[in-house]
Design goal:
This protein is mainly beta. The protein contains one helix and ten strands. The strands form two sheets. An eight-stranded antiparallel barrel has the order 3-4-5-6-7-8-9-10. It has a two-stranded parallel ribbon with strand order 1-2.
Length: about 150
């Protein structure tokens, strides 16, 4: 009888200690006290995702861009760089986004960084384009304000 009572008390204690919340370490709303994942986790990259209207000082003043997920929770793809350069990958941490130097076509690389601005639901992004297709390196420094649509 005594083992049965202990088992019931232990089971009730363990069930009573379950706390629902986000259990995914590194998520925006990670709860270290949660023991049961309730599906509410907000990944760091989520605020960067979506369609954006881009205001640029580079080659084209205004155009559209999409930022999408990858299989890595800290990596996104940015389409339509400088309105014509194609897609790049970027790393996100907190409110920062970093584009490591990468080739977007033969002889053309892009690298840069930016920050998510919560009060505007926008991204401020600066990047450098290096173009060596003519045999002489030409550098374009670009700044963009990307407002989520």
């Amino acid at each position: 009888m005594r083992p049965l009572v202990l088992t019931i008390l232990l089971g009730a204690t363990l069930l009573g200690c379950r706390k629902e919340g986000c259990t995914q370490f590194g998520a925006e709303n990670y709860d270290p006290d949660a023991t049961v994942n309730d599906g509410s986790c907000i990944l760091v990259r989520d605020k960067f995702l979506g369609s954006f209207e881009v205001n640029s000082n580079c080659f084209t003043d205004n155009y559209l861009r999409t930022i999408e997920t990858t299989t890595d929770q800290h990596v996104v793809t940015i389409s339509n760089m400088a309105d014509t350069l194609g897609t790049v990958e970027a790393h996100v941490w907190g409110t920062d986004i970093v584009i490591d130097r990468q080739s977007v076509r033969t002889g053309v690389t892009v690298e840069g960084a930016g920050v998510y601005v919560a009060e505007n639901d926008a991204i401020s992004l600066t990047f450098r384009i290096r173009d060596t297709r003519t045999g002489i390196e030409v550098i374009h420094d670009c700044a963009e304000w990307c407002t989520k649509l």
